Amino acid sequence: MIKRFVELSITGFIAVIMAITPREYIKARLALMFGDQTPKKVGRVSLNPFVHLDPIGTVTFIFLDFGWSRPVPIRPWNLRGKKKTFLFVSLSGPAVGVLCFVIYGYLANAAAVENKYVFETLYKAAKFSLTYSLFSLFPIPPLDGSKVLGALLPENYTEWYLKYEVYGVLFMLALLVLWIMPLVMNPFVDFIDKLTNLVTS
Q1: Alpha carbon 156 to chain centroid distance?
Q2: Which residues of the chain have a pLDDT value below 50?
């Protein structure tokens, strides 16, 4: 039992890295490419997974099948194209997650008969990628959905809205502690589990 717990923890942790790193790196890289130096200044334009992982979000991924990463700090007023570009960059995270779901799902299918640990890791990476794409669209700061909403708000409300990100984090933690978030996410996780089974079988 302890051995299986360790195996699940290791494959889950590697899967979180595989799901989180590409989307956060690309989001940071796009923001930099469009003129915002903030991600570079805080070290987020990096393929080092540990600059992107959130400790609590990583644990919930491994044991509850959903979670989150550290938000990439982006200042929309620094971007060329400002709000339109901010919307594009914010949506890039979920889009990359869907792409990763397809890639990891295909690889898991190919690896199914080769090695159970490789399959398990790829399966989880696919599932986590799609789950996070869906979860991150919730309009709760600092998730991508809140930034999408911020990009759609009138100009004078965007900065005011985004500065409350820290309270969004506390709100998410409260929902987690009260077990509300797992109850809300459970139907989505079940659906994505079935979809991942379909892709990898």
Answers
A1: 28
A2: none
Residue with tokens 């990096």: 46
pTM, to two decimals:
0.92
**Per-position b or e across 12-51, b if 16+ CB within 10 A of its CB:** bbbbbbbbbbbbbbbbbbbbbebebebbeeeebbbeebeb
3-state secondary structure the chain: CHHHHHHHHHHHHHHHHHHHHHHHHHHHHHHHHCCCCHHHHCCCCCCCHHHCECHHHHHHHHHHCCCCECCCCCCHHHCCCHHHHHHHHHHHHHHHHHHHHHHHHHHHHHHCCCCHHHHHHHHHHHHHHHHHHHHCCCCCCCCHHHHHHHHHCCHHHHHHHHCCHHHHHHHHHHHHHCCHHHHHHHHHHHHHHHHHHHHHC
Exposure of 7 in the CB half-sphere (CA atoms within 13 A): 9
How many residues are given for the chain?
201
> In this predicted model, what pLDDT tens digit does every residue of 136-166 receive, in sequence order?
999 888 899 988 988 888 877 777 776 777 7
Round to whole Å and give the CA distance between 70 and 143. Answer: 9
